[in-house]
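Ticket #304: bound-state structure for iron/sulfur cluster.
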Amino acid sequence: MTVETAVQDSVAEPVQLKAKDFKGKVDPDWCKGCGDFGVLNCLQKACADLGLRPHEILTVSGIGCSSNFPGYFNSYGMHTLHGRALAVATGAQLANHELTVLVTGGDGDGFGIGGNHFTHTARRNVDLTYLVMDNQIYGLTTGQVSPTSRLEMKTKSTPFGSVELPINPITAAIMNGATFVARGFSGDAKHLTLITKQAIEHKGFALIDIFSPCVTFNHDNDYPFFKPRVKKLEDEEHDPSDWKSACEKAMVWGDTIYTGLFFQKKGQPSLSELEPVLDEGGPLARRSLELSQDQSQMIIERMM
Ligand code: SF4
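RESOLUTION: The complex was predicted; output attached.
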C-alpha cells in the first residue's frame, strides 16, 4: 500500500473512537462511590457511540465537585466561574456553532448561583446539552443545603432541618421554554447513556437533571434511596410532546420517582439558527477579522 492510498483509506474510514478515548489527562479526585463517576463514564460512551471526536466538543463548567469535569474529559474545556457556565457556553456556542457544546455542573452551581442563566439559556433555546449532577447538597463546601435539598433535610447549614421547599428542575426547565427535558440516574448507566445521546442529538437546549448521589455528605438521597424508586417513563408509555403530562410526572416524588425523557419539542429553531449574523459565512470563529498585520499586533500586545 502506498502512502497516498493509506491516506485516502484513512480519510474514507475514520477510526471509530471508544469511550476510553474521551478519558482526560487527569484522574478524578472525587470520593470513592461518588455518583459523578457514573455520569463521566456515560458521557464518554455516549460521545464514542455518536462518532464524535474530542476536537469537535467543548465542555464548560462552573464551580463544585462535578464542575471539575472538563479536566477529566478529553475535549476542549473551560472551567469558569461559579454559576456562569451557561453564560460562557452560550458565547462559545455562538462563536462556533459547529461545536458540540456540553455544560457540566451541580445543582448549587446551576440552580442556585446560576439560576438566572438557567432561565435565559432555556428560553433562548441555545443548542447545548446541560448535564446537572444533582446530589441535592453542596458537596465541595462539605455539606450545606442546596436549591434541590428536600424539605426538613438536616445539613451543616440546616441542623434543625431545611424549612425551604426545593425547586423542581424539570418543571422549571419546561416552564422556561427548554425544548428537551430529561432526568437520569447515575446508578443506571445504560439508561443514562441513552438519554445523553438523545440530548446531544437534540437541536436546542437540552437539560438532563441527573440523580448523582453525594455519598459523603447526603445520606438521605443516596443509592439505597433511589434504586427502588426510580421508574423509567418509557415503561409508562409517556408522550414527551405532552407538556402537561410531563409536568404531572415531574411532580411525582415518593415511592415512585420518574427518570427518562419528560418533554421534547422538536423543530423549534435554536438561537444560532435564528441569529441573522450566522446565516452565511460559517462560524464566527473561522471568519477573517480583516485586520492588518499592525492592527493584529497591537491587539495582541494589549492583551498580553
Ligand atoms: Fe462526590 Fe460528594 Fe465527594 Fe463531592 S463530596 S466528590 S459530590 S461524594
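RESOLUTION NOTES: Strands lie at 57-61, 76-79, 100-106, 128-134, 180-185, 205-211, 230-232, 257-264.
TICKET STATUS: resolved
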